[in-house]
Design brief:
Order of helices and strands: HHHHEE
Structural class: mainly alpha
Distance between the termini: 78 Å
Shape: extended
Helix content: 40-55%
Largest sheet: 2 strands, antiparallel
Radius of gyration: 29 Å
Number of strands: 2
């Protein structure tokens, strides 16, 4: 009988490599250089108190080609952009808003605002009043 060696999602082939409950996702921990930087960074923030000093430490680490420092600089200069996905809550509406551009969504919003009326309240005598 041949053994099935294909990848199965969520199944590790090596029980020894599975994480134990409460175990870190990075068993080897942070790099020594990163720990040294963080200590020097925290010391600079507390004792020297200048953001310029902290920035200089980060730039020095990046110039030494420390991947985490380069990543930190990239994160600070190019933050992740937020995205928004519009999902129709009523499938019977028949509209797929995902096909519209931002400009079209703005135009649609403006049209709906222009077409909306303030609600009217009906009094007991049958006359209508604006809210």
């Amino acid at each position: 009988m041949q053994r099935d060696t294909r990848f199965q999602q969520g199944v590790s082939g090596n029980d020894a490599s599975k994480w134990k409950p409460g175990q870190s996702g990075n068993p080897s921990g942070k790099s020594r250089l990163r720990s040294q930087f963080e200590q020097a960074f925290n010391d600079a923030l507390i004792t020297q108190g200048g953001p310029g000093e902290a920035a200089e430490l980060l730039w020095e680490a990046a110039r030494r080609k420390e991947p985490w420092a380069i990543q930190e600089l990239c994160r600070r200069f190019a933050p992740e952009t937020a995205s928004l996905k519009i999902v129709s809550s009523d499938p019977s509406e028949g509209f797929n808003y995902e096909k519209l551009t931002d400009e079209q969504l703005h135009q649609l919003h403006a049209l709906l605002e222009a077409a909306s009326e303030p609600p009217t309240l009906e009094s007991r005598d049958g006359s209508a009043e604006s809210a």
